[in-house]
Amino acid sequence: MSDAEQPGLYVESTVIMTTVRVVTPFILTFGLFIMFHGADSPGGGFQGGVIAGSVVMMLAFAYGIEATRDWLDSRLVVAIASFGVLTFAGIGLGSILLGGTFLEYHRYPIEKASKYGIELVELGIGGIVASVIIGLFFVIAAGFGHAIDGGDES
């Protein structure tokens, strides 16, 4: 009997599914608000990324972990993390190419370069953190038996 067929692992609840369906857009929006607000006040990419990553956990608790894992392609999670790393590195290295130091925003020839640079960096960090949180959740949810392929079970 597989893990998905064992009784007690997932119980479908209309109340939980409906609640998650209703609050998910608001929580994701709040996570993005926290990410972008980090340039002006407390908040930032880490905090917003954790909130955004928790949306996937809520979906998994409401609709089942395997169903959510099947719905959310792992390539998308890797792409979001890669986008975050490339954004952070691109903003930082761009200022070096313009004759400054890493993440020296005022080197960019645009008005309010520091504000926009910080917001882009926070968005990149948020994507990295959300992807790591989602990945860790699915790895932990798979259990220790699935973590090691080809391991000696004797």
Ordered list of secondary-structure elements with their pairings:
Layout: H1 14-37, H2 45-63, H3 65-71, H4 74-97, H5 113-142, H6 144-147
Helix pairs in contact: 1-2, 1-5, 2-3, 2-5, 4-5
Task: Characterise the protein shown here.
The protein has one domain. 70% of the residues lie in helices and 0% in strands. Helix 1 packs antiparallel against helix 5 and helix 2 (45-63) packs across helix 3. It is built from six helices and no strands. The protein is an all-alpha fold. The model has no long low-confidence stretch (mean pLDDT 87).
Summary of the model, kept short:
With 154 residues, the chain is mostly helical. The protein has six helices and no strands.
Question: What overall geometry do the principal axes of the alpha carbons give?
Answer: elongated
List the helices and strands in order: HHHHHH
Category by helix and strand content: mainly alpha
Can you give the mean pLDDT?
87
Number of strands: 0
Amount of beta strand = under 5%
The count of helical stretches stands at 6
**How many independent structural domains?**
1
- The helicity comes to over 70%
User: Kindly, what is the distance between the CA atoms of the first and last residues, rounded to a whole number of angstroms?
Assistant: 20 Å
- Gyration radius, rounded: 19 Å
Largest sheet: none
Show unreliable segments: none
